[in-house]
């Protein structure tokens, strides 16, 4: 029995064995003992496991319409719960096997959900029915902590370790009046958004560091802004470890992170008058997935940065999220948290 073996085998050896077992086996082993449950469900174990298995993970689609034709490229799963019409689910980000999305209805945002598809565990965070200016999902590696940031008439940060929202300082006045694109991504400890003071000029990348909990700006080259018909149509993502943006006709990559002069247009896109509504890039894959509006239909397309080929994957309907499937065992079983500590104080 595993519990008796652990009495004779050093803990460090047991941990190394567990790191290389499949997710389904690890889920069963969480019932062996409290210590195994604590180890297997910890974020540090998840991180070690992702680094110990360097092979390219499969791609996971979270899709409302199940099932559709099986694929060797993707695995599919439905969202963790159903939402009534007219709610939609908008993807915010995914990290280490945890997917973040928000419920939306016309003019309002509602609950934010952290979801682990591997074990169907999720945490639903109630929020006030407001329209957020921007949202971001990231990871604080110093404190081993998932964090969420939201911007509306103030800036608030949620820590999974702490289990509540708190207000944080922002050095920019009237941040909620800036125009944000509808995508964001996490790379090198930072959440990134494309931001503009107007619909055409003065566009830049706004960055929030999850460890330092501070904002800063990063500029675009003039050619990138001129190429985009509207800078708010730029989609920011990560492709093979590079900060990247997609416009209606191409992909730009920051070849040296933090160096604005290293922005380079790498690929041209021929979308045949289609319009990109969502984009999903991956750290360890050359494939970029795009949800494309074309001739009244929404369908998933892929762009291979190696062959520069665009394919219609013939998957239609609302793709909530596409992410790398690393088989995370992170448990998200906290009860829903209060709206925020600052709001609780005002109510008293």
From TrEMBL:
Superkingdom of the source species: Eukaryota
InterPro entries: F-box-assoc_dom_typ1, F-box-assoc_interact_dom, F-box-like_dom_sf, F-box_dom, SCF_F-box_component
All copies of domain F-box, residue ranges: 3-50
Coiled coil: none
PANTHER family assigned: BNACNNG10540D PROTEIN, F-BOX DOMAIN-CONTAINING PROTEIN
Name of the protein in its database record: Putative F-box domain-containing protein
